[in-house]
Amino acid sequence: MSVELVLHYLVSPSFIRGAGMTLLLTVTSLFFGVVIGLALALIILIFANQNGSTSLTKLGGAVVFMFAALGAYIWLSVADQSLGGSGYPMGRALRS
């Protein structure tokens, strides 16, 4: 495999289109995942402060931890794939 062939592939329209679509989907899903996780935790914590409930405060912390764990799992999967591994299972495919 020559360097010239690799460079030709990296500037080809199909590679740029595919990489752009993947990047767009990844950044968009990451952004909305963070926004939804923070909004959900914030709503739970607002209710916890209004009612003086410690169990709702713990639930809000668990929601934040759950979204952080999900982000870490996805990050580790991508890191595994970038090193040549198969990545971690993400569930069933939406379309086969």
Provide a short characterization of the protein structure.
The protein is mainly α and 96 residues long. Helix content is 79%, strand content 0%.
Description:
By secondary structure, the chain is an all-alpha fold. The chain has one domain. 79% of the residues lie in helices and 0% in strands. The chain is built from three helices and no strands. The chain has helices spanning 3-10, 13-51, 54-82. Helix 2 (13-51) runs antiparallel to helix 3. The longest helix is centred in the middle third of the chain and has 39 residues, at 13-51. It is elongated. 2% of the residues are buried.
What are the salient characteristics of this protein?
96 residues; mainly alpha; 3 helices; elongated
